[in-house]
Design goal:
There is one protein chain. By secondary structure, the chain is mainly alpha-helical. Helix content is 74%, strand content 0%. The chain crosses the membrane at residues 16-37, 58-78, 118-141, 153-175, 187-207. It is found in: Cell membrane. This is G-protein coupled receptors family 1 profile domain-containing protein.
Length: 227
């Protein structure tokens, strides 16, 4: 659309786009919570880590996250596609659930459904992640060694940064009610949530990896001493 300058989508294309976006967004919500739970078990119950997060359990958690995201996306897209619209111009740069609520006739049932979906797949995983990290921080603060506390915090820092950026922009965009006078603000948040955050995630995670940092320094022609 950006390259062609043609911002027209067919009905089918629009809802395929919506389905894909909601699917990966809901799945990431759940995956971020699973990662928080992983840190919780690793620090608070290290002796049970390989039991609770065995390969079988990890596959089950991943499958559940992707499967639940798929079902949720299907239901949301199906419900949205049945709305009565008073215009075919979507006030957003992609087919978005909240944008459709602005161009549809008042539907209290749909509004309630969209907020319930947001609570289950947004607020719920976020609160569970916060509870996990609260427990983690309490345990870390009881570590007597300062070096031990630093290492424990360093294992959580990347995920905490991603968690803050992702849910911060998501909650600002989807939890607040539709605002007609702040369209530019909403579009900015949408870009941060749907474009900038996914681009930043790999950088945040990989910059903590010594092998990645060593490879980047070598790529820039900087000699790195092997440890």
């Amino acid at each position: 659309m950006i390259l062609s300058g043609d911002y027209t989508l067919s009905f089918a294309q629009c809802f395929i786009q919506m389905y894909s976006f909601i699917h990966v967004a809901a799945t990431e919500d759940l995956l971020l919570f699973i990662m928080a739970y992983d840190r919780y078990v690793a620090i608070c119950s290290p002796l049970y880590y390989h039991l609770r997060l065995s390969r079988k359990n990890c596959v089950l958690l991943m499958s559940t996250a992707w499967g639940t995201g798929c079902i949720n996306s299907f239901l949301v897209t199906l419900t949205t596609s049945n709305l009565l619209l008073f215009t075919n111009v979507v006030p957003q740069f992609f087919c978005d659930l909240k944008a459709f609520s602005k161009i549809s006739y008042p539907n209290p049932g749909f509004q309630l459904y969209s907020y319930i979906e947001a609570v289950i797949f947004g607020v719920g995983p976020f609160l569970c992640s916060i509870i996990s990290y609260t427990r983690v921080i309490i345990v870390i603060l009881h570590i007597k060694s300062s070096d031990g506390r630093r290492k424990a915090f360093s294992t959580c820092s990347s995920h905490l940064i991603v968690l803050t950026i992702y849910f911060g922009t998501w909650m600002s965009l989807y939890i607040m009610p539709p605002l007609e006078d702040l369209r530019v603000f909403e579009l900015t948040l949408s870009i941060l949530f749907s474009v900038i955050t996914p681009m930043v995630n790999p950088l945040i995670y990989s910059v903590r990896n010594k092998d990645v940092k060593r490879a980047l320094l070598k790529l820039m022609g900087i000699n790195v001493r092997e440890e």
